[in-house]
């Protein structure tokens, strides 16, 4: 999607509806700075307010993502293109998040082991030793849990039995047996347990 084009379209429609950036922002419960960033092509409106924004600008979501008022003849073609583009952007974002997950996981383990090593082999008062171990343990656990949150939400898990791809609950991922990013979970569609691999796209390519 062309963010510059979309931004110009937002500005154009806002002016057509006789609103300032501040007035539009107030209607959407965002800052006028956020509206300015949209109109300058620096960011996109969050999906949670996209419908409200389109309502205020008197356009459809398809119009917004196309950066123009879509004619009836072009509607289906533009809609398909926008859906594919959004799926591609999500896949790219998920790929970056999963790379971040690895970094957070590794750093968390290093911090945990580092503090434990220092507390175990360096001469120090007992209270300081306990504090270091507790701090390292806390940082390590928080980091690992955060990394697990990323793994749960980024991309999809693919059921080995029926091929269904879905985002599981955090608790399912947390307590599942696993080997890397492959986890033994129950599929919500076929209700069978299997070793399910992490994949980035919703449908098979």
Characterize the overall form.
Answer: flat
Structural class: alpha+beta
Task: Tell me the Rg in angstroms.
Answer: 24 Å
Largest sheet: 5 strands, antiparallel
Count of the domains: 3
The total beta strand count reads 5
Strand order of the largest sheet: 2-1-5-4-3
Number of helical stretches of at least 4 residues: 8
As an assembly, this protein is: single chain
**What would the average pLDDT be, to the nearest integer?**
89
Unreliable spans are none
- Amino- and carboxy-terminal Cα gap: 21 Å
Element-by-element helix/strand order: HHHHHHHEEHEEE
Q: Beta-strand level of the residues, as a percent range?
A: 5-15%
Query: Helix share of residues?
Result: 55-70%
What does this structure look like?
With 205 residues, the protein is an alpha+beta fold. It has three domains: 3-70, lambda repressor-like DNA-binding domains (434 Repressor (Amino-terminal Domain), Orthogonal Bundle), CATH 1.10.260; 84-152; 155-199, no CATH class. It has eight helices and five strands, in the order αααααααββαβββ. A five-stranded antiparallel β-sheet has the order 2-1-5-4-3. α2 packs across α3 and α6 packs antiparallel against α7. The longest helix has 47 residues, at 75-121. It starts with a helix and ends in a 6-residue tail after the last strand.
Could you list some keywords that capture this structure?
8 helices; alpha+beta; 3 domains; 434 Repressor (Amino-terminal Domain); 205 residues
